[in-house]
Design a protein that fits this description.
With about 450 residues, the protein is an alpha+beta fold. The protein contains nine helices and 25 strands. Strands 1, 2, 3, 4, 5, 6 and 7 form a seven-stranded antiparallel β-sheet that branches. Strands 8, 9, 10, 11, 12, 13 and 14 form a seven-stranded antiparallel β-sheet that branches. Strands 15, 16, 17, 18, 19 and 20 form a six-stranded antiparallel β-sheet that branches. Helix 7 packs antiparallel against helix 8.
Length: about 450
C-alpha cells in the first residue's frame, strides 16, 4: 500500500512541477569538477576501464584499502566522463539477474576469483578518476547485458539504467510479469502470436507442482496449470539460473522412456547381443553347488551355485519363499558353509535359472549337470555303512549318522550347544541358545562341524 501511494505522489508531482532542462544537482556538480581535466586516454562504449570509485571522501574511508579502485564497463560517453556499471569479485549478496560473470581473475596469492558485472543504477565516472585501460568486450555481450538491464528497469522503474539498445527475444526459462502484476515462467511461443506460460503459485496445486526460489521467496510452478498470453500482456521481469530451468523443464517435459525392442532381420542376419553370457569353461567351484552359506555377522543365508572371476553367484535363501529367482554376485569370502539345500529346492531353482534371460543361464546348465553328479555319488554313499567320525573323549562321543534321534544333545562349531527337536531326512531342527536352526546334519557331521555331546536323553 505504501509503495502504491508513493508512486501516485511522484506521478502527481511530475505533472504539477514545470519541466526543467537542468541536469540533476549531483550530476551537474560532477560535470563542473571534471571540466578542467582531460581524460588520460581515449575510450568508447564497451571498454572496461580501471577507475577510482566516484564517491565522497567520507564514504571512501569506509571502503577497505585496495578496493577503492575497480573496473567499470563504459555504457555512454560524456564530455567530461562516462556512465557505466562497476565490476566486483564479491557478488554473493546480489541476485542472479543483477550480475553477469565476465572472467576469472587470479590474485597474487594464487586464489582465483570470478569477476562480475553489477547492474546497479548507472554510475557516472569523471575523467580524472580513470586510472588505466583494462579490457574491451565485443558486440556479442550486448544482448545478454541488455536483457539483465531490462529486468532491472522493470523491477526499479525510478532508477537510471543505460543499455546498448539491442533487440532480444524471450527464451524458455525467463520470468515474465503479467498484466495483473503476477509472475510466470515463460515456456515457448506459439504460431498465433500467443505464448505458453506457467504462473507462479504461493501453494502447490497438484502432485505436478515443483518448488522454486526467486528473490529469496518460495513459489510453486504447476506443470498442469498453463496460460496463453499475447506479447502485449506480459513483459520480461527476471531470469532463472540454468539449474532451476532444467529442474522445471524436467517436470514440464519429462523425457520419454523408449522401450527396447528386438527386431528380427531374417535368417543369416546378425543382431547385437543384449547381454554378455558367462562361458561355462570360465566358471569354478569353491563349494559344492547347493551348499548353504551363512555370513558370520548378519547371519543371512545363501545357496551357492558357482564362482566366476573371484565372484560367487549366490541365491538368497529367503527369496525362494518370495518367488524371486535371481542370483546375486558377492565377492565377500567370509561366508561359512552350514548345510546343503534340498533336492526339490535346487531343482526348482535350476528350472528358473536355466531358461530365464540372465547372463548366467548358459553356465547354469553346466552347474545343474555338476549338481546331478554330486547327488548321484551321495546316494551311492548312503547305501554303504558310515564309519564313526569322532573318537571318544571326555566331552565328545562317536556320532553314528543313522543313530541320531530327537532330543539328542549336540554341539555346533559356531552356534554352540543345542538339542535336536525334529528330524526330516538329512535336515534336523536344532534348538540353540540363540534360536532355532534347520541344518543338514549329514553334511555338517561329515565336515566336522557337528558333534555329539552325550548319549540320547531318555
Amino acid at each position: 500500500m505504501k509503495e502504491k501511494w508513493i508512486r501516485k505522489l511522484i506521478r502527481w508531482l511530475e505533472k504539477k512541477l514545470p519541466p526543467t532542462d537542468q541536469k540533476p544537482i549531483e550530476e551537474s556538480k560532477i560535470e563542473e569538477q571534471a571540466q578542467s581535466t582531460e581524460p588520460p586516454l581515449s575510450y568508447s562504449v564497451r571498454d572496461i576501464l580501471y577507475c577510482n570509485m566516484p564517491v565522497e571522501e567520507e564514504d571512501l574511508q569506509s571502503i577497505p584499502k585496495g578496493h577503492e579502485t575497480r573496473p567499470y564497463l563504459v555504457m555512454k560517453c560524456g564530455n567530461h566522463g562516462f556512465w557505466g556499471y562497476p565490476m566486483t569479485t564479491t557478488h554473493e549478496r546480489y541476485e542472479y539477474d543483477e550480475k553477469m560473470i565476465y572472467t576469472q581473475i587470479e590474485k597474487t596469492n594464487g586464489i582465483q576469483k570470478s569477476s562480475y558485472f553489477l547492474f546497479v543504477p548507472a554510475v557516472y565516472v569523471p575523467n580524472d578518476h580513470i586510472v588505466s585501460f583494462y579490457s574491451r568486450i565485443d558486440r556479442s555481450w550486448e544482448k545478454p547485458i541488455d536483457k539483465r538491464i531490462a529486468c532491472q528497469k522493470r523491477q526499479h522503474m525510478y532508477c537510471q539504467y543505460i543499455s546498448f539498445h539491442s533487440s532480444f527475444s524471450l527464451t524458455c526459462g525467463d520470468i515474465v510479469q503479467l498484466k495483473n502484476g503476477s509472475l510466470a515462467f515463460f515456456h515457448r511461443q506459439l504460431a498465433n502470436e500467443k505464448n505458453i506460460v506457467y504462473p507462479f503459485c504461493k501453494h502447490p496445486r497438484s502432485k505436478a507442482s515443483i518448488q522454486v526460489i526467486f528473490h529469496r521467496q518460495i513459489y510453486w510452478i504447476d506443470g498442469l496449470h498453463t496460460l496463453n498470453v499475447s506479447d502485449t500482456e506480459m513483459a520480461l521481469y527476471s531470469i532463472f539460473p540454468k539449474s532451476t530451468i532444467d529442474k522445471v523443464l524436467l517436470m514440464i517435459d519429462p523425457p520419454e522412456q523408449k522401450k527396447k525392442t528386438r527386431v528380427y532381420k531374417g535368417p543369416g542376419s546378425s543382431s547385437p547381443k543384449l547381454k554378455k553370457m558367462i562361458d561355462p569353461k570360465e566358471i569354478s567351484y569353491v563349494y559344492d553347488p547347493g551348499t548353504v552359506l551363512e555370513h558370520p555377522f548378519n547371519h543371512k543365508q545363501f545357496i551357492y551355485f558357482f564362482t566366476h572371476q573371484s565372484t560367487h553367484y549366490l541365491f538368497p535363501d529367503d527369496w525362494n519363499i518370495k518367488g524371486k529367482y535371481r542370483l546375486i554376485q558377492e565377492s565377500d569370502h567370509l561366508y561359512q558353509p552350514i548345510a546343503i539345500a534340498g533336492e526339490e529346492e535346487m531343482e526348482r531353482a535350476f528350472r528358473h535359472f536355466q531358461y530365464n534371460n540372465h547372463s548366467y543361464s548358459w553356465a547354469m546348465k553346466h552347474v545343474c549337470a555338476e549338481y546331478q553328479i554330486l547327488i548321484k555319488k551321495e546316494k551311492e554313499q548312503e547305501k554303504t555303512d558310515i564309519e564313526p567320525i569322532y573318537e571318544d573323549s571326555e566331552t565328545m562321543v562317536d556320532l553314528e549318522l543313522p543313530k541320531l534321534k530327537i532330543r539328542t544333545k549336540i554341539g555346533h562349531v559356531q552356534y554352540g550347544e543345542g538339542i535336536v527337536t525334529k528330524l526330516d531326512g538329512h535336515k534336523a531342527t536344532i534348538e540353540f541358545t540363540n534360536g532355532e536352526k534347520v541344518l543338514n546334519w549329514h553334511y555338517l557331521t561329515k565336515s566336522g562341524k557337528l558333534y555329539l555331546l552325550e548319549k540320547n536323553i531318555q
